[in-house]
Amino acid sequence: MIGISKLYCGTVEASDALRYGRDSKKLPSHLLQFSKDKKPVVVWNMTRRCNLRCVHCYAQARDKEFKNELTTEQGKALIDDLAQFGSPVILFSGGEPTMRQDLPELAAYATSKGMRAVISTNGTLITKEMAKTLKEVKLSYVGVSLDGMEETNDKFR
Question: What is the share, in percent, of the chain residues with pLDDT greater than 70?
Fold first, then answer.
């Protein structure tokens, strides 16, 4: 990930010595930012489909089918390319990635290629079954969006 402050201000941070002094393959996911690897974390907005209508959605996601989304096989080809490039992490996002039936298959495929697979989700579709499935495919991290307490959150979504 790119530090915005560093990008705009050209500053050097005290943590830079740590960030570029470690081997990412040995780090837990939450410490990957301290890796010496300078390869990008890839965010794949794998669908624009979503079960919510968040007013702030950058993807303008809706609960309908969208054309031109990658198929499962095309997604695997993308993952092959990213793994060959050496990208350490693929973050499945959207829209709502859990609306794609092939999310577990693609996440498992990414981990089989040596990448860390993570998802960013609104969390509303994660059942006990899905949570178990996502655990079995060895996701490194699941990020769930919350916009505030119940009333504020519901106003946005």
Answer: 67
